Amino acid sequence: MKRLRYLFILAFTFYVSFTHAQPTLNTSNLAHQYNPDAEIDLRHEIITSNDTAFIYVKLIINQSKPLLNDYTFDFFTAGSYGEALQQITANKIDSSYLGQARNQHTIRFALPKSSLLGLGAIRVQSKFSGFTYFYDFNMAGHHIALWDSNNNVQFTSWVAPGVYHFNSGDQIYGYYYEHHFPPALPPMPVREETPAKAMPIDSSFVVAREQNITFTNHGLFLFQNDSSSQRGKGIRVENKYYPKLAKLEDLVEPLIYITTKEENMQLQNINGDKKAFDKFWLDLTKSPERAKSIIKNYFDRVESANRLFTTYKEGWKTDMGLIYIIFGPPDEVTKSNSDETWLYLASPDLPKLKFNFIRTESVFSSSHFVLVRDKNYASAWYRAIDLWRKGRF
Fold first, then answer.
1. pLDDT tens, 260-279?
2. How many helices (H) and strands (E) would you count in the chain?
């Protein structure tokens, strides 16, 4: 209840300040973007064509009572996170409602590309709760969209095996990487990291105009309009259950964050045996209820990390995924062009914590972040791991 009241105060304060002065995104708390209990979630995909920017929006309503008509959308732009937001007037925006699937609504907005600077923001206001939500987007992205066989745009950086096609009328260059990424390291420096080696391309191909592409192999794909460009669209092909980990053998690796090296080796040797998996947790916790609670809550966090932070690697393996799994959704999130900062308020079990993530652009993604590691995190890290193992997270 205290946390919900805190979030309400933040949202209301943001709304009041916005009505009196144009805010900047780098002074706004954007923690709702990572809050699994938020009233709504919003995903977007941008396609540019000639002089028009098409912004596809998927609004996910996480409560049963609000309806689509309870929400209004406004668009803003700025040159950077530190500049005042400029509202794009409604007469420049055309909208088309594309359909509904359960609690998810898809809408397409069209506006002049010239009206958008380097950074854009969507404001969603809820007449149901009175909350105001902002979602930022970068205009310097790839702008290659993927569509499924039912002509639905894909809003995630992962897809299930199947048949897809691109929005572009030009040919697309594709590359496949059968690469296994390691899990993130703890937040304090524990060893010198080996410099990353260039990933070898396992295969390459060209997708011609209006040609379908069928994904069968799991792994990482890169697509580009220009094969010499330093930008592209990274897509992971995962099983149909992703971001959930549905197979027992897939559950073992993410446990590396809360198990010892010896325990993790023991888990790797159970070979998909559920009885052996359950016995491991029962031996560790001495309580069936506590074991069940740890497993459920931990893998709920893993699923959320995959949903929120998957880029060219699985979300749980990213630095943001690591911090999210162990410490939960941050209380405050602030962003700038170069970094993102998460703040956790002090609790009876853990001190106030602040994590800074540096934006690292790559050919696969413009939204991958690397944690600034610090030896001072060690005490809180080991305390949090101990809480997990005791079922007191």
1. 999 999 998 988 888 999 98
2. 7, 20
